[in-house]
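Its record is set out here:
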Amino acid sequence: MDTPVTPRLPNFDLGLPLLALALLPLLTACGKQSAPPAQAATNVTAMKISARDVPVSVTFVARTESSQNVEINARVAGYLDSKNYTEGGPVKKGQTLFVLDQRPFKASLDSARAQLANTQAALETARLTLRRYQELTPRGAAAQSDLDKATGTYQQAQASVKQAQAAVTQAELNLSYTTITSPVDGVSGMATPSVGTYISSSNSKMTTVATLSPMWVNFSVSESQRQQQEAAVRKGLQRPPPNGMYQAEILLGEGQKYGQTGKITFASPFYDSNTGTFMVRASVANPDGVLMPNQYVNVRLTGAVRPNAILLPLQAVQQGAGSNYVWVVGKNGRSEYRTVVVGPWQSQGWFIDSGLKAGEQVVVDGVATLRPDTPLKVKLLSQAEIDKQLGLAPAAAQH
């Protein structure tokens, strides 16, 4: 009798299906691409571009010069009796600087006056004699030759009087020349001779007096600067002041602005081949004597305007590989790289020749970390803040 066989049931492991069910959501999630976190916006400061007329200035190194640098010389010879001024101090027109020994000149004047009196007496005698012969000759009481001789004597006496009068005048002038005065208001130089020195034609220089107001300010303009300025005017990039009357601002040490403004009074038409420049002169009032002769200053010429100009602060313009660029606030408030062509710099800004247009927003601060398409949180500058960054006076910026 065969032994009955018990059928084998399949071995179901209930743990695996449960694990699969537990991992199913995770596996499903892994099948989908996870979204990257949102990029934080970068804080930047920007300015809105507006084309406007911008004042243009250019600065040169200059040297002051007295408008009247007078060399004081003795006009007569004699011993220097006294010096009556403080060397290096201010002097007034007509102020006595030196006095020569006057005694010889007074003696000469007395002698000339005595000679004049003598000739005047001789003239009176000749006049009376002539009148007597003029009465006698017509009656035949005197010869015509006597009348002619009396006439000649009278004329000679007249000439002698004129000569004596000229001698007196010369003696008076020589005496006046012993008192040497300043011909102008100004500042005095060092006295060349000492008191007691005999002054003659070989050592007649006494001192110098330099006028302080107006003061001349001389500077040089190179040939290339002149050509660039003329080309800018020709292309409409610069508009000169009316009648070409540039104003000259004087800048002292550390850029301190001098209180008086001068004007261009002379521009040499002759090119100096040794320096490669043209000499230009401005004249400025100097009533308080702040400027001294032969002082180095800076002169800034103002009055010209660049019409419809775009001017950016210096830090907004970056240097790239062979070009300049800025960051613009583009679509959806994201950064946009923009190549620009820069012109000359002005005060604290760059003129932009091309690459930007009015109405666009350019990043001024916060450019160091920017990359293309960076989201931006923008703070716009006011017009007053823009002018301050550009170094423009508010009044000038409104023109």
The two ends are 126 Å apart (CA to CA).
